[in-house]
Write a structure and sequence with these properties.
By secondary structure, this protein is an alpha+beta fold. The protein has a single domain, classed as 4'-phosphopantetheinyl transferase domain (Ribosomal Protein L22, Chain A), CATH 3.90.470.20. The chain is 28% helix and 29% strand. It has five helices and eleven strands; from the N terminus they run βααβββββαααβββββ. It has a five-stranded antiparallel beta sheet with strand order 6-10-9-8-7. Strands 4-5-1-11 form a four-stranded mixed beta sheet, covered by helices on one side. α1 packs antiparallel against α2. It is globular and about 50 Å long. The chain starts with a strand and ends in a 5-residue tail after the last strand. 36% of the residues are buried.
């Protein structure tokens, strides 16, 4: 059985991670308008390189990347699959040797009117379930579960939010820790994937999309004691 390894950490502003970035990554970081965004991009990609170096046995600065059909980044040699996500000061990466994976972490704190996005993100079945909840907190958390599940699934299959998120319907109960996706997208084969909702904190939602045969291991969490 293949294992998907999950690392979730807080961004700390450590400049040391920038030392292993490629010229292209440095140029992309420099293109951001705000200093905070530049630093977060640099740290996220530096941390990603260090995590992949751990699994591949290659020095962080020697790792090379290419992009897939929908610009999803991957290692040039294809030795390990990975996906990263960040929200506010949290960074998460999923790594698997044998299979493509998708991950998304969200706090929702950047959008106070989060539930106003329901009509743009949710399938009719999901909207009905949200409307059936009386607690605003439960609605917010369920919506974030739907959002992260859709993004993780669409990233796993390689297209991301270039595909309309409402085209994917999350089946099952995210609050139980697992669910599946349903979609009519050609070639998406949602039945081959499982969505894992990892409980890292009440204020955050972390979802991983992985093939059904994969085990999930949360290696580190920013909320570990």
């Amino acid at each position: 059985m293949s294992t998907v390894y999950i690392h979730a950490t807080r961004l700390t502003g450590e400049l040391s991670f920038q030392q292993c970035l490629s010229q292209e990554e440095e140029s992309r970081a420099a293109a951001f308008k705000f200093k905070r965004d530049k630093e977060r991009y640099s740290e996220c990609h530096g941390r990603l390189r260090h995590q992949l170096a751990h699994y591949t046995g290659t020095e962080p600065e020697k790792l090379t990347f290419r992009t897939g059909p929908f610009d999803k980044p991957e290692l040039t040699d294809g030795a390990w699959h990975f996906n990263l996500s960040h929200s506010d000061d949290l960074f998460a990466v999923a790594v698997c040797q044998d299979h493509a994976v998708g991950i998304d972490i969200e706090t929702g704190t950047n959008n106070r009117n989060l539930l106003e996005l329901v009509s743009h993100v949710c399938h009719a079945t999901e909207k009905a379930r949200l409307e059936g909840l009386s607690s605003a907190q439960e609605k917010r958390r369920l919506f974030l579960s739907y959002w992260t599940a859709k993004e993780a699934f669409l990233k796993a299959i390689g297209c991301g939010f270039q595909q309309a998120p409402e085209s994917v319907c999350i089946a099952g109960d995210p609050f139980s820790g697992q669910a599946t996706g349903e979609t009519t997208m050609p070639g998406a084969t949602p039945e081959a994937w499982k969505l894992h909702f990892l409980a890292i904190a009440d204020s955050h939602v972390l979802t991983v999309a992985a093939p059904r045969e994969c085990a999930i291991e949360l290696v580190e969490s920013p909320f570990d004691a």
